[in-house]
UniProtKB/TrEMBL annotation:
InterPro entries given in the database record: ISAs1_transpos, Transposase_11-like, YbfD_N
Superkingdom in the source lineage: Bacteria
Organism of this sequence: Streptococcus anginosus subsp. whileyi CCUG 39159
Protein name: IS1548, transposase family protein
Record-annotated H repeat-associated protein N-terminal domain positions: 16-90
């Protein structure tokens, strides 16, 4: 994250048209706070300011918030000075940094779902119970395994995970 903050400071040089004597928050700080709060779902300037107040201690580890958090008016005023193309480029850089951090921490999210396959044509055949693993990011099914009728879906999921990742067997 620090890499992004440093790179954003380089990219915003010359973009800040505010009077230097009246600047309380650097443009890089404002942008970081806007991007971070948007990541949390904030959409309006008021929501962004509220998010900042609620998370001031955490965000203060990354940027200087010694003079408290910027107000919603500050966010709106400063962001109105930035062109849409510059904002989109900076936002893209922020998203790339977040994706890079997440890819190091988590390879991807896999959903595991159990389903009983009903509607068999013959009465002698019982319904199959299947666990499907799905990679939502790539929109594809990774595997399906048939489990016993009486088995617990959770234990079947653990079995699937330990087959795919043997190092997790100890957990």
């Amino acid at each position: 994250m620090m890499k992004f903050i440093l790179s954003i400071e380089e990219k915003v040089v010359g973009m800040d048209r505010r009077q230097s004597t009246k600047i309380r928050y650097p443009l890089s700080t404002i942008l970081f706070l806007v991007f971070f709060s948007q990541l949390a779902g904030a959409e309006t300037w008021g929501e962004i300011a509220d998010f900042m107040e609620w998370n001031e201690k955490v965000l203060g580890k990354y940027v200087d918030l010694s003079e408290s958090c910027p107000s919603h008016d500050t966010f709106e005023r400063v962001m109105s000075m930035i062109s849409d193309t510059h904002f989109q480029e900076l936002n893209r850089c922020f998203q790339e940094e977040i994706n890079f951090i997440l890819s190091k921490e988590f390879s991807r999210l896999i959903s595991l779902e159990g389903k009983t396959m009903r509607g068999n044509r013959s009465k002698e055949q019982s319904a199959n119970h299947i666990i499907t693993s799905y990679d939502g990011e790539n929109r594809m099914s990774l595997s399906q395994i048939v489990v016993d009728e009486k088995s617990n879906e959770i234990t079947a999921n653990v079995k699937w995970l330990t087959v795919r990742h043997p190092q997790w067997e100890k957990l």
